[in-house]
Specification:
Layout: H1 2-20, H2 37-41, E1 56-69, H3 72-80, E2 95-99, E3 111-112, E4 123-127, E5 131-145, E6 152-166, E7 170-175, H4 209-213, E8 226-227, E9 240-245, E10 247-259, E11 262-273, E12 295-308, E13 314-335, E14 348-353, E15 360-361, E16 374-381, H5 382-386, E17 387-408, E18 411-422, E19 426-429, E20 443-445, E21 452-453, E22 470-471, E23 506-510, E24 522-523, E25 532-533, E26 535-537, E27 555-569, E28 576-589, H6 614-618, E29 634-635, E30 640-651
Parallel strand pairs: 2-3, 8-16, 27-29
Antiparallel strand pairs: 1-5, 1-30, 2-4, 4-7, 5-6, 6-9, 6-10, 10-11, 11-12, 12-13, 13-17, 14-16, 14-20, 15-23, 17-18, 17-19, 18-27, 21-22, 23-26, 24-25, 27-28, 28-30
Amino acid sequence: MKNTLHRIICIASLLSFTAGMADVVPYISIRSQGFNAPRELVGWQSLINRYDMDCVYGAFSITPEFTRTFNSYRLAQALFSNALECTGCDNRCSTFLVQGTKVANRDTKALMAENFYLPTDFSSEVTIQPRVENFLVDFNFYLGLDEWCDGLYFRVHTPICHTRWNLEFCENIIAPGVLNYDPGYFNGTLEGIYPNEYGINRGTMLNSFEDYIVDNRAINGVPDVTFNSLNNARISKCPLTKTRLAEVTAAFGWNFINRENGTLGISVRAAAPTGNRPEACFLFEPIVGNGHHWELGGGVNSRWCMWRAADECDDLSFYFDANVTHLFKTRQCRTFDLKCQPLSRYMLAMKFKNDVQNLLAGNVLATAITPNAQFASEYIPVANLTTIPVDVSAALQADLVFKFAYTHANFQFDIGYDFWARTCLKIHPRGNCCQGVFSENTWALKGDAFMFGFNEDNTNPNLLLADTGTALSSTENKATVFGGTNQWPIGIDGLAWNQNPGIDNSVAAWNNAVAPVSQGLFTKISGDATPTQVQTSLQPLFIKETDFDIDGASTRGMSHKVFTHFGYIWKERQEWQPFLGLGAEVEWGQHDDRFSCPGCKTSCVCTPCKSDSSSCNNTCHKNDCSDKGGKCCKTIALTQWGVWVKGGVAFD
């Protein structure tokens, strides 16, 4: 019975993980290090919002704090969920595979190695353990203005923060790969001697996934073909750091109920951005602050003395504070995936030209026509195309704290709960966002398509094909970061893998030579004694600006925190009262197993594209909430612990 129950739980866990982690987020938007109501409130609550004052008084505090994330697999799931390898019932996985198309028993969740200029028989295992550490010093100042109006106050605070983001990237190469690229797979120049001609020598390729994604390397030295390196969404093996003021937050408030046993007040809050903006150079880039948003909102503060001893040396009070702000639109730079293609930022795109040379397309030569575009001999990572400037805003951000405070003489003990939430980010491209590298009807996905065909050469005993090929119009719009559509090694409908049977709108490729006669364009695999006619696309399908998955990058945040603080106030001093205390907090960030749908009660999952590729241009999520008045938005937040020391002085 126990084993049966264990199996049921195991199966349910796996199904939940498979269905839930159906997408990734290209950027993790964090809770600002400066938006922390518990740290603001603890340790000095009896020295601010006082009821017995008729003059100007105040307090100043300095709070050094160290925080560190845990449950790193949660961040790994957010960044690479579709590729992560999990076994058994343990979903705490942070490892993925990189494997070439020709790896025996290839894992279907492995990233295709050719996207990273690696051999078709390359295999490696990559592990990441994302971690965020912050060391900050929060400066807080409170000024009571009771001399002007009973209960009136002004407060301002800003933390200076040193943040450290580390993916702890590690690659274990299982098989470095020895195979050359086949003729026409990447380039149109043949090397070697029949029957072992090849396109690109293994020695020219990269040697690891790390070479590509960390060291920014690409293939060099291949005649007439350009291989661009990855410029955006890269990974750093070393920790990335940033030191800034998070933001400067000020509040102007009034305690309209201000008595010995209770206080109730309201305030207007504003925050000026002093942190950094996302730049999209790195996948896991360090952020200080709220992403450089201006904030405006309000707050509520309250206190209720639940019990007080007869000698007034002991009391127990309940505090509730709430801060709500709007995050105004700000400019950021973000990298996006393509709709319905998670992690597609790490796929390869190809450049096309309209000036088609020596290429016809059609299943019969007599009716073959010139395609509308032809490969222009340039490859580029999709991330280089989909990194664009955007405007980002959030309707609301809320921080609610509930706290019990026990006082005994000069000692204070606090314990409480904090809830933080931010609504779904609204992301919009800034104007004509793609005036740089990207342009319409120019770029297409490569997948495992062959990009060159060759004329037969029966005159040279050392060559079966001519040593210079013709660029094709092949595209694979349905390829994914995990593989192409040519289905190595079996091919499709009697056509071999290297004949391009799975490309978009596949038809036979021909040259259009005037003399002596037009003939087919061929390809071969090293060692084959007979070439086979290659297919090309009529017409090729291009990446469009509308394919950028802007909505899929929208996230919201939610977390739950418990905290405690123990402090001492030197009350015997009259005009100047120092205080000092120690505190700790543990925050659990919420991570959706499914996409949550604001405005509707159901959940939705980003499903693979239908056979009709046009459906992806209109809607990515098969069962999304567009017909229910909502939009899918994934919840991501950091899970972390922190410790602080809070000290300062009050004056009147």
